């Protein structure tokens, strides 16, 4: 990777930091990128920055800055998600939000994490207890190196208990294992009334919890109780909302926007792909 490319990545990283408000918040949103790495790149201290790290940052930041997907903030779904997050944070509530894949659950959390003491973890199937806690500590701006699982959990709980109205959001929570899901119970038990928790996922998590309760599987009745024995099911995006999403992202022909939505199966990821394909065809992307 040549110097010119690195300078472009540095500039994109700078713009991203300005957008989210701080290097700490940028580090929370970028996967596998520490505050120290961000600081060194912006300060032109590149000697210890590997090629893999440059590429990792480029894939996340340059796409965000150069081809940013615009979000509609007045859809029923976005408004409902903001209400859920605000209630969870303000009143230390616990919610489990479910909606279909590609319906736009993740973006509201990325927007809300810009608020103070909001910690977002994007769950993955390969996470074990230690890597999950490592990701959570990273979201909190804490170092996780060299700690045992017990020590990591202690730092998590300590951070929560001294923070003002903290909120933890677990995105794609249906992907985590039972052992990691049990940490949800531990965090709740140790911080009840002092921390908001939101699990968001597809309805696979709802079915999994309901099945676990039905067969009396370890921990599942506790989890169901902690979320108030209720799932928050998001309303579907309307056709009109999806058309407006397409048009605010560069589709200036209403008939073309309608065609895109009709071909999308109401999946926002599909709409994004179709919008970008249309713009490339027109030579504007």
Named at the architecture level, the CATH assignment of the largest domain is 3-Layer(aba) Sandwich
Overall structural domain count: 3
Average pLDDT number? 88
Structural class: alpha/beta
Q: Give the distance, in angstroms, between the N- and C-terminal Cα atoms.
A: 24 Å
Question: How many E-type strands?
Answer: 5
In CATH, the topology of the largest domain is named Rossmann fold
Helix-strand sequence: HHHHHEHEHHEHEHHEHHH
What order do the strands of the largest sheet run in, or round the barrel if closed?
2-3-4-1-5
Broad CATH class of the largest domain? Alpha Beta
Low-confidence parts lasting 5 or more residues at pLDDT below 50? none
Percent helix range: 55-70%
Please compute the radius of gyration using only Cα atoms.
20 Å
How much of the sequence is in beta strands? 5-15%
How many DSSP H or I helices? 14
State the major sheet: 5 strands, parallel
Structure in words:
The chain has 14 helices and five strands. Helix 1 crosses helix 4, helix 7 packs parallel to helix 8 and helix 12 crosses helix 13. It folds into three domains: 64 residues; 158 residues, Rossmann fold (3-Layer(aba) Sandwich); 43 residues. It is α/β, with parallel strands linked by helices and 285 residues long. The chain is globular. The mean pLDDT is 88. The protein has a five-stranded parallel sheet with strand order 2-3-4-1-5, with helices on both faces.
Gist?
The protein is an alpha/beta fold. It is built from 14 helices and 5 strands.
């Amino acid at each position: 990777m040549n110097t010119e490319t690195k300078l472009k990545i540095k500039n994109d990283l700078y713009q991203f930091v300005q957008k989210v408000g701080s290097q700490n918040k940028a580090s929370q949103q970028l996967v596998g990128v520490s505050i120290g790495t961000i600081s060194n790149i912006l300060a032109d201290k590149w000697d210890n920055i590997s090629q893999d790290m440059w590429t990792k940052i480029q894939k996340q930041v340059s796409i965000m800055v150069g081809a940013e997907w615009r979000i509609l903030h007045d859809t029923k779904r976005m408004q409902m998600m903001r209400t859920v997050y605000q209630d969870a944070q303000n009143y230390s509530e616990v919610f489990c939000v479910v909606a279909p894949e590609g319906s736009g659950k993740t973006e509201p959390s990325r927007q809300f994490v810009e608020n103070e003491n909001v910690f977002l973890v994007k769950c993955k199937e390969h996470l074990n207890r230690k890597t999950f806690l490592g990701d959570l500590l990273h979201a909190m701006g804490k170092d996780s190196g060299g700690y045992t699982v017990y020590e990591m959990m202690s730092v998590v709980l300590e951070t929560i208990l001294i923070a003002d109205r903290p909120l933890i959001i677990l995105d794609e929570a249906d992907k985590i294992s039972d052992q990691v899901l049990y940490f949800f119970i531990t965090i709740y038990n140790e911080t009840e009334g002092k921390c908001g928790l939101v699990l968001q996922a597809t309805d696979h998590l709802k079915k999994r919890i309901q099945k676990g309760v039905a067969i009396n599987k370890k921990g599942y009745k506790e989890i169901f109780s902690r979320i108030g024995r209720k799932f928050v099911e998001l309303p579907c995006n309307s056709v009109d909302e999806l058309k407006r999403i397409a048009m605010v992202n560069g589709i200036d022909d209403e008939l073309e926007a309608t065609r895109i939505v009709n071909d999308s199966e109401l999946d926002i990821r599909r709409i994004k792909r179709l919008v970008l394909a249309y713009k490339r065809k027109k030579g504007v992307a």
